[in-house]
Amino acid sequence: IQALQISENKIIKTKMLSRACFRQFSASIRRMSSTNIVETNIDSGTGFATVTLSQPPVNSLDKNLLTAITDRFKKLSDDSSVTGAILTSKFDGKVFSAGLNIVDMFQKSDDHLGEFWGMVQEWYLTIQGFPKPLVSAINGHAPTGGCAMALMSDYRVMVEGKTIGLNETLLGIVAPFFFADLMIAAVGRRHAEFALNNGYLYTSDEALKIGLVDEVVNLDQVVPTALKILTKMTKTPQPAYQVCKNFLRKETMDTLRNDRAGDIAHFVGFVQQPNVQKAIGGYLQALKQRKK
Ligand SMILES: CCCCC/C=C\CCC/C=C/CC(=O)SCCNC(=O)CCNC(=O)[C@H](O)C(C)(C)COP(=O)(O)OP(=O)(O)OC[C@H]1O[C@@H](n2cnc3c(N)ncnc32)[C@H](O)[C@@H]1OP(=O)(O)O
After folding, report:
1. Residue 14 to residues 3, 11, 25, 28: CA-CA distances in angstroms?
2. 167 has catalytic annotation
3. How many helices (H) and strands (E) does the chain have?
4. Is 146 within a domain?
5. Residue 11 domain-assigned?
6. Is 87 an annotated catalytic residue?
7. Residue 174 pLDDT > 80
8. How many domains does the chain contain in total?
9. What is the domain-level CATH number for residue 118?
10. Which Gene Ontology terms describe the biological processes this protein takes part in (predicted)?
11. pTM (2 d.p.)
12. So what's the ipTM on this one?
C-alpha cells in the first residue's frame, strides 16, 4: 500500500510538473497571427522573432510574398517586446529564396510592373531599415533578390554546399543600384564589380572567402548559429546599435526615397525593352526545361 501511495504521488507530481512545463513553453513561444507564407514565432523569453518564408516551391518574391514580408517586418519594428530577428526559409536544405518572381516581369503592363517595383522598393526600405539586429539563416540557395534580402540583414549564416550571388546579368537584366550598394557594403567595390558584371554565383565557401556571408555551417547548425550571434548582437546597447545602423545605411535608402517614382519609371522602361523581354522569356523557358 505504501509503495502504491509513493508511486501515485510520483505520478501526480510528474503530471503537475509537465503541466507547468507546458504552461512555461506555451508562454515562451508566441506565434504571431501571420499569413501562412510568412510564419513568425516570437520567443517571449528572449524577444527573438523567427521569420520563416514559406511560399512554395522556392519563395520567389511575388507581390503577395513581398507584401507579407514587408508587413511582418513593419510589425516587428513596432513591437517593443521584440529585441531582434532571424530570417530563414521553410525549404531548408533547398532554397532560401529564388529572388524576385520572374513571371511578374514578363509580358506585363506598365501598371503591373510599376506596382510590382513599388512593392520591391518598400520591401527593401523596410528590411534594410529594420532598426533591430537581424540575422539571416540562409538554409538553401540564395540567387539574385534572395541574395539581396540576405544582404539586408546584419549577419549571414549560410549552409554549406549551396549558392548565393547577385547574378542578374546572366538573365539579361541588371541589379538595381540599391542591390549593388548592398553588395559593395558587404564585400567592397572590387569583388562587387566582378560579381555583378559577371553575374557570378558563389558557392557557400567562396562567399565566405569574400565576406558575402559571415559563417558557413552544416544544415542543422544554421539556425542555432544564427541564434547564438543574435544573442550577442542584442547585448549591444540598442539605442546605440540603432543609431549606428541607421546612419551607415541611410545614404542609399535616402537616394531611393527621394525619387521612388523616377526609379519605378527607370525599371519599367528597362524591363519593357524588347531585347530584355526576350532574355527574360528565354530564361523562364530554360528554368522550366531544366527539369526535363
Ligand atoms: C541600367 C540599370 C537598370 C536597372 C534595371 C532595374 C531593374 C531590373 C532588375 C530586376 C532585378 C531582379 C532581381 C531578381 O531577383 S530576378 C530573379 C531571378 N531569379 C533567379 O534567377 C533564380 C531562378 N531559380 C533558380 O535558380 C532555381 O529555381 C533555384 C532557386 C536554384 C531552386 O532550384 P530547384 O529547387 O531545382 O527548383 P526549380 O528550379 O525546379 O523551381 C521550381 C519552380 O519554381 C520556378 N521558379 C524558380 N525561380 C523562380 C523565380 N525567381 N520566379 C518565378 N518562378 C521561379 C521554376 O520555374 C519552377 O517552376 P515549375 O515547377 O512550374 O517548372
Report:
1. 16, 5, 16, 21
2. yes
3. 11, 10
4. yes
5. no
6. no
7. yes
8. 1
9. 3.90.226.10
10. fatty acid beta-oxidation
11. 0.91
12. 0.97
